[in-house]
Write a structure and sequence with these properties.
With 324 residues, this protein is of the alpha/beta class. The protein folds into 2 domains: 178 residues, Quinone Oxidoreductase, Chain A, domain 1; 135 residues, Quinone Oxidoreductase, Chain A, domain 1, CATH 3.90.180.10. It is 30% helix and 26% strand. It has 11 helices and 16 strands. Helix 8 links the parallel strand 13 and strand 14. Helix 3 crosses helix 4 and helix 3 crosses helix 9. The protein is globular and about 60 Å long. The termini are close together. 46% of the residues are buried.
């Protein structure tokens, strides 16, 4: 198989595409043939040595998601057969032309999605849906503030929250991002004044749920914009992993700050997130109520350019890598 390999920790000098032996599938796993794979900010963190994979996971092949066609099934696999189109989550090894994944961490790809669209879905949409529902307990009568609203996870969250009936405020950093956020049915907010704008738009009440995809830079203003019994779910830390929090306001608002990540979860918890995604989000994708955003597609030979694009600000949607 062809795989994206990290030869150590660093920047693009450690990134290579090379041939590796195909992964062996264990009991309960399937082998997925991959044409296009999705990149994630976590891949950058792993490249830099800041986000090692869990124990037992291939240590030097990046990738947290998979989309493709089942080519082989292991013992005790009951749901999938060769030829099925699937997408889902892995803890590592996803940036390869063949990926071994547990059958419970996969969902069926709607026939209407292209290969590129399917590859842009799993990590972004499962992360967004899990943050909104399992972690954030969003209800239809609430207001949600989404940072990075034109990015892969952010745009997924905006669309899912809208379909759930929530009022959605999306933070945008450019005129193009503003138009994208508006096209998804959300109210765009300026990145530098979002806290004041949230309070203005909600008559001083604040946001019931904040999806923090940017990180430490935003946290003080997230606290200023949170409603009573509001929840802040931290998903990304691109602007920094540390911040000061006004604990008095946290107490007075009876607010909650929670961090979330998919990769480190055990099989049962990860499978549960995939199952809920399949039940609640895949139907939205199947009838085009929501859609994945694709920023760019690179051939595997240009994997370093793909990582450069992934590291740039102002992306709109997913960066993909084509193996075939």
């Amino acid at each position: 198989m062809n795989a994206v390999v990290f030869s150590g920790a660093g920047t693009n000098e450690v990134v290579h595409a090379e041939e590796r032996a195909d992964p062996r599938i264990a009991s309960g796993e399937v082998l997925v043939e991959v044409v296009i794979a999705g990149l994630n900010p976590a891949d950058l963190q792993q490249r830099e040595g800041r986000y090692p994979p869990p124990a037992g996971v291939v240590p030097d092949i990046a990738g947290l998601e998979v989309a493709g066609v089942v080519s082989a099934v292991g013992d005790r696999v009951t749901r999938w057969a060769a030829g099925d189109r699937v997408f889902g989550l892995v803890a590592g090894g996803g940036l390869a032309s063949r990926v071994a994944v547990h059958e419970r961490c996969l969902a069926e790809v709607p026939g209407i999605l292209t290969e590129e669209e399917a590859a842009a879905v799993p990590e972004a949409f499962i992360t967004a849906h899990d943050a909104l529902t399992t972690q954030g307990d969003l209800t239809a009568d609430e207001t949600v503030l989404v940072h990075g609203a034109s990015g892969a996870v952010g745009s997924a969250a905006v669309q899912i929250a809208r379909e759930m009936g929530a009022r959605v405020l999306g933070v945008a950093r450019s005129s193009r991002a503003t138009e994208l956020v508006r096209s998804f049915g959300a109210e765009p907010l300026d990145a530098e004044t979002f806290d004041a704008m949230v309070l203005e738009r909600t008559s001083g009440r604040g946001a019931d749920l904040v999806l923090e995809l940017v990180g430490g830079h935003n946290m003080p203003r997230d606290m200023a914009a949170i409603a009573v019994r509001g929840r802040i779910i931290v998903i990304g830390v691109g602007s920094g992993a540390t911040s000061e929090i006004d604990l008095v306001r946290l107490m007075v608002r009876r607010a909650t700050v929670r961090g979330t990540v998919l990769r480190a979860r055990g099989l049962d918890e990860k499978a549960s997130a995939v199952s809920r995604f399949e039940d609640e989000v895949v139907p939205m994708l199947a009838d085009r109520r929501i859609r994945p955003m694709i920023d760019s597609v690179f051939p595997v030979a240009d994997v370093r350019a793909a990582f450069d694009r992934l590291a740039e600000s102002g992306r709109s949607g997913k960066v993909l890598l084509r193996f075939v």
